[in-house]
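Deliverable D2.4 — example input (structure tokens):
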């Protein structure tokens, strides 16, 4: 849905529209739960803001990447996230790993390098890789302050931080006035509602599960998402891109099945 609604929109404007709604929805949720009586841990809150800044970079570069890559390619490159997550879990959190990580990583890198040889894909791949690393690193580090943070409060911190980044971007681009005057498209309202629910569930997952185990969940949804994207966008993909995508998917599936 983000792909379909953001292709012809300035990314900072799009994120500001989306995040304005997510913040409003989260505030309403907090008020309905307990009238804003949520215990605030200043240290954890500041840590979460720092992590949310990293995630904000991931969101911005993801939206920019959708404008330069076929969506199927982008999804399969995004599937490198679980492999990156394993590296983070192993080296930053000392979580156990096994031999399949190294083999999967090498296969995936070969797939990305093949796709990077296509001139029209170079910028999109760079943005997609920045998005993967930023989003995965941000949420992995966020698992630490999440242990001491109420879930709804954590959603507000993340969405509020992303909104702040978008507003700063609009001010730098001198687009703030046009954003204020613009109407928010109806699909973005639905996207914002789904985002709040998804953010809550994602935060819960990172709070209660090991970093290295979370990647397993993506195996269920990746083939379905790729199929849906093909049906929606009917994108033509070159033979070289197909080879690249197959290698990336093999790397992803090999690690998940061998772990």
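Example output (designed residues):
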């Amino acid at each position: 849905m983000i792909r379909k609604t953001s292709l012809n929109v300035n990314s900072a404007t799009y994120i500001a529209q989306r995040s304005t709604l997510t913040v409003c929805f989260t505030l309403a949720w907090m008020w309905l739960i307990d009238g804003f009586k949520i215990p605030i841990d200043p240290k954890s809150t500041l840590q979460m803001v720092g992590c949310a800044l990293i995630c904000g970079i991931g969101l911005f570069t993801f939206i920019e990447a959708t404008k330069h890559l076929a969506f199927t390619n982008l999804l399969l490159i995004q599937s490198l996230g679980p492999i990156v997550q394993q590296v983070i879990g192993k080296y930053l959190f000392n979580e156990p790993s096994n031999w399949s990580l190294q083999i999967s990583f090498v296969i995936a890198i070969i797939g990305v390098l093949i796709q990077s040889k296509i001139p029209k894909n170079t910028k999109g791949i760079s943005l997609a890789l920045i998005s993967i690393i930023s989003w995965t690193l941000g949420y992995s580090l966020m698992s630490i302050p999440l242990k001491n943070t109420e879930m709804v409060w954590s959603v507000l911190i993340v969405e509020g931080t992303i909104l702040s980044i978008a507003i700063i971007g609009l001010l730098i681009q001198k687009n703030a006035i046009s954003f204020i005057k613009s109407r928010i498209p109806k699909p973005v309202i639905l996207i914002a509602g789904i985002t709040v629910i998804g953010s809550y569930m994602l935060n819960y997952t990172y709070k209660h599960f090991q970093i290295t185990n979370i990647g397993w969940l993506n195996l269920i949804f990746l083939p379905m998402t790729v199929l849906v994207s093909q049906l929606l966008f009917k994108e033509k993909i070159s033979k070289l891109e197909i080879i690249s995508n197959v290698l990336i998917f093999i790397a992803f599936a090999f690690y998940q099945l061998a772990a």
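The chain is about 80% helix and 0% strand.
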